[in-house]
Design goal:
Elements: H1 9-19, H2 33-36, E1 42-45, H3 67-75, E2 85-88
Parallel strand pairs: 1-2
């Protein structure tokens, strides 16, 4: 594990309880390509589901909760050493 990112206090407390490390609390949409380039070969993501699920807003990328995920997608082609694997989890 190179770094975890989350802004939710409860999620961060749980993460610390199990891994004894604090997640980085900056928002992902503030990261630059130099923050990410070559840092990890596998990215595991679980972006907010509300913009894209049937029970959510249905606004897709117009929902601001998609911003962090879209930012990462925009950064991928700018990386000299992108991750080999991009694992994405979301609900139905």
């Amino acid at each position: 594990m190179v770094q975890a990112f989350d802004i939710n206090g409860a999620a961060n407390a749980t993460y610390f309880h199990y891994f004894k490390r604090k997640p980085h609390t900056c928002t992902i949409d503030r990261l630059s390509s130099s923050d990410l380039d070559g840092k990890a070969d596998v990215w595991c993501l679980s972006p907010p589901c509300q913009p894209v699920t049937r029970g959510g807003t249905g606004k897709d990328t117009a929902d601001h909760r998609s911003d962090s995920f879209m930012h990462l997608l925009d950064l991928l082609p700018t990386l000299a050493t992108p991750p080999s694997f991009f694992l994405l989890e979301n609900v139905k």
